[in-house]
Design brief:
The chain is mainly alpha-helical. It contains three helices and no strands. Helix 1 packs antiparallel against helix 2. The longest helix has 33 residues, at 41-73.
Length: 126
């Protein structure tokens, strides 16, 4: 459902961009050239204006719908919960936050068995 609305939203955005570029601006825009056609300049401007309003209303509706769907999917879930895969431990008396689990996040201390393996190379003073 969300994917269908997203595709409609993207198509509306592209159509809205195209219709806005076709409209006649003060400098002529992409709609320049005019000439004789089936519609007069005023009728063409009115039709493009109505199409623009319709596409804009559809774009706003799909934007609001996507926002509501995303908010309902994420209700009560923290970004940190998604990253760690489980809810963080909470203290019952709320005195201090739980310590972070840093296993695998930090490099090993340099005082280990292979202390010289990661040491930077220093040029010899010959």
């Amino acid at each position: 459902m969300e994917n269908v609305i997203l595709i409609v939203h993207l198509l509306l955005a592209l159509a809205l961009i195209g219709v806005v570029l076709l409209q006649r601006s003060e400098g002529g825009g992409l709609g320049m050239g005019g000439g004789g056609g089936a519609m007069s300049q005023r009728a063409a401007a009115t039709a493009l204006g109505k199409i623009t309003w319709g596409l804009a209303i559809g774009f706003i509706i799909t934007s609001i719908t996507l926002t509501v769907l995303a908010a309902s999917d994420a209700s009560g879930v923290s970004v940190m919960d998604r990253l760690s895969g489980s809810a963080p431990a909470t203290d019952t008396n709320n005195s201090a936050p739980a310590p972070l689990d840093t296993d695998g996040l930090l490099p090993p201390p340099s005082g280990g068995n292979d202390a010289g393996a990661d040491a930077p190379m220093v040029p010899s003073a010959d």
